[in-house]
Amino acid sequence: MDYNTLTEHLKEQFGAAILEIDPTADIFTMVVESDQIKPIIAFLKEQEHFDFLTDLCGIHYPDQPKELGVIYHLHHLKERKRIRIKAFVSKDHPYIDSIVPLFLAANWMERETYDFYGIQFLGHPNLKRILNVEYLDYFPMRKEYPLEDDTRTDKDDRFFGR
Amino acid sequence: MNSINEKPSYQVVDPPEGYSSPGFFATTLDKAVGLARKNSIWPLPFATSCCGIEFMATMGAHYDLGRFGAERLSFSPRQADLLMVMGTIAKKMAPVVQQVYEQMAEPRWVLAVGACASSGGIFDTYSVLQGIDKVVPVDVYVPGCPPRPEQIIEGFMKIQELVAHESLRRRYSPEYIALLKSYGIQLDNKYTHGL
Fold it and tell me: Which residues of A touch B134 (CB under 8 A)?
């Protein structure tokens, strides 16, 4: 298997759902439609034997029309090849299919992504916060929230150039 | 060569103010109790990070907190007199700190060791408690990141001063009960008398 035939297979199978392919990146990278993520990952797992989910995480680009992203890293263990898949959703409608039915390892990683970015994974068996306190009322890794804690009382703004 | 009958050059502990003549010594109960308590504090080390490493040095032979009567660490809050919080307390850990404090018997003291326990330190961020005084009342703060064992010992000696001079009625006072109430900590009825 090489990346050219993989690209052909994917284009043949999913056509317009593959938005962008970048074979020059450090890892073969593609951007896909978020509503097609589950069939695409199922195809990669079952037909192309990318049978190991290395990573799943969120990202926030505030300047993009679809601000929030989910990034998947898959690994072909036999051929030692890796692939990175990005899917973007809008902040008003941050829904994407869960891939827990395909990879059980996605369970906690999707919970973490939900915890920090507020991305809702449809069909996740137990989508609740995993690292932060339960009463946290925002998603702290989104760029619109300040990094600093608002309960801090001993910092004088003058000493920090503010 | 020192003879065995020679008086030692060190003094174990100063006696409190009082009246003495051959055969008797009279002082107030507060002072006698304070003296005893001061020199037998059982600390509960709540060590979460690098300040805890400094505390280990403090307990070691070189600095030896045992010289201050604090040889015996209490790993159960129920027998501890002093809660020593050393290290960053995440917001998820905050209820644990408060629960440990609630399980300690009166009278109890709290020493916040290091910048993180005192104010959050460099971790001014969404996941870290900005000082343990947000969840429990603190008696002495030790600055430093992390503080050296000498500083921890100085903080401990400040606690000893508070212990020695505390009125036996303080824990029953309405101010103290109000202080604990402001942290949402309920006291035993023995102390509150239905307040």
Answer: 151
Segment holding A18, helix H or strand E: strand A18-22
Residue B124 to residue A154, Cβ atoms within 8 A: no
The total domain count for chain B is: 1
Q: Which two tokens mark B34?
A: 């304070």
In a domain, A14, yes or no: yes
Mean pLDDT of A85-101: 96
CB-CB neighbors (< 8 A) of B96 in chain A: none
The pairing of strands A18-22 and A28-32 is antiparallel
Radius of gyration for the alpha carbons in chain A, expressed in angstroms and rounded: 18
Give the side-chain half-sphere CA count within 13 A for A28.
14
Residue among B92, B124, B127 whose CB faces A155 most closely: B124
Q: For chain A, what is the domain count?
A: 1
> Domain span at residue B150?
39-185
pTM to 2 decimal places: 0.84
How much of chain B, in percent, has pLDDT values that exceed 90? Answer: 73
ipTM of the complex: 0.78
3-class secondary-structure state, position A148: coil
State how far the Cα of B144 lies from the Cα of B135, in Å rounded to an integer. 21
Q: Looking at chain A, which residue has its C-alpha nearest residue B128?
A: A149
Q: What is the CATH number of the domain that holds B93?
A: 3.40.50.12280
